[in-house]
Amino acid sequence: MGTHPGGVPERISDEVSCAAFLCVRRWPDGFVCPACGGSRSVTLKSRPRLFECLDCGRQTSLTAGTAMHRSKLPLTTWFWAAHVMATHSNGMSARQLEDQLGVTYKTAWLLGQKLRRSMVDPDRDLLEGVVEVDQTEIPFRAGNAFFEPGAAGKILVAGAVEVIDRSAGRRKPRRKGAKYLDTRSGRLRLAVITDNTAKSIEAFVRANVKPGATLITDGHAAYPGLSGEYRHDPRVVGNMAANVVLPWSHRAFSLLKRWALGTYHGLRRKHADAYLDEFVFRYNRRFYRHVSFETVLGLAAHRTPETYRDIVNRDAPHKRANPPRATTYRRP
Predict the structure, then answer these.
(1) What is the pLDDT of residues 78-116, one digit of tens each?
(2) Is 316 exposed, middle or buried (CB count within 10 Å of its CB: 0-12, 13-18, 19+)?
């Protein structure tokens, strides 16, 4: 499959081919009418996004009920944004997307946020085998002021990464206390946690690691509570550098911090989890980025629609509990 000069595959370089590509991702077994369940349809030539059911006559938009719901942007803009965000090694900030796509900053920001939220597969498998678990702090930027490391706040992030035995090519638990030499990093999971308590850390582990896995940790007091579900193999750091004891989690944390400061000049606390999901998505597909673009579009095609107000947690004016009343003036 060739590519045009912009780097996007040729078959998705115009509206018609983009619609055909997205149709296969949304309805892999063929069109299904949301009203009657019929499978026979025709595409309107003037509007390639619109399908008309031949059984009941209902017209269904290809993007309705997806991350692209009610979007007025061309599909080519969505596809180009997904391509650069999924395949570029450092992703794209809203300012960079604004320049790349030729749209306003607000449009670029919203487009990026919707795609980030489409980078998590709700049916993804839990980590298993041997898993390093640790926590770190990353700085966040408040307001629109220039990022100043000394004045920045901190976000507490928990991370879990699979340890793969290079010789066996799989996750291979060893006896407790044994060194894991000649290994590589497997899949990664990251999430913001409220504090370093056992409750927060245990919730993160249970949500991301399969019971029965071997947990390699720094011996934090929170982990013994998981001993009934997991095989705990603590490594006391002491005077040794933490990256020697837990090399793969600390490598992931180091890459995360450089990415957050380099691409975004500091993350925002409010949307930190979405940015962590973006980092995890590319990290887990670093060896086959050419297919990650299609993965994003496939997930976006099944993503529940979110509006700008949903993302920023702001109610529409007519839904506010106590909307401000207009002031009336009476002539004396």
Answers:
(1) 999 999 999 888 889 999 999 999 999 999 999 999 999
(2) exposed
Task: Report d(CA 205, CA 225) in Å as an integer.
Answer: 11
pLDDT of residue 11: 57
Tell whether the model's pLDDT for residue 123 goes beyond 50: yes
Of 153, 93, 165, 159, whose CA–CA distance to 129 is shortest? 165
**Domain 130-287 falls in which CATH fold?**
Nucleotidyltransferase; domain 5 (3.30.420)
Decide if pLDDT at 5 tops 60.
no
What's the full length of the chain, in residues?
332
Domain ranges, ordered by start, for the chain: 130-287
Of the two residues 194 and 146, the one the predictor is more confident about is 194
User: If you average pLDDT over residues 253-270, what whole number do you get?
Assistant: 88
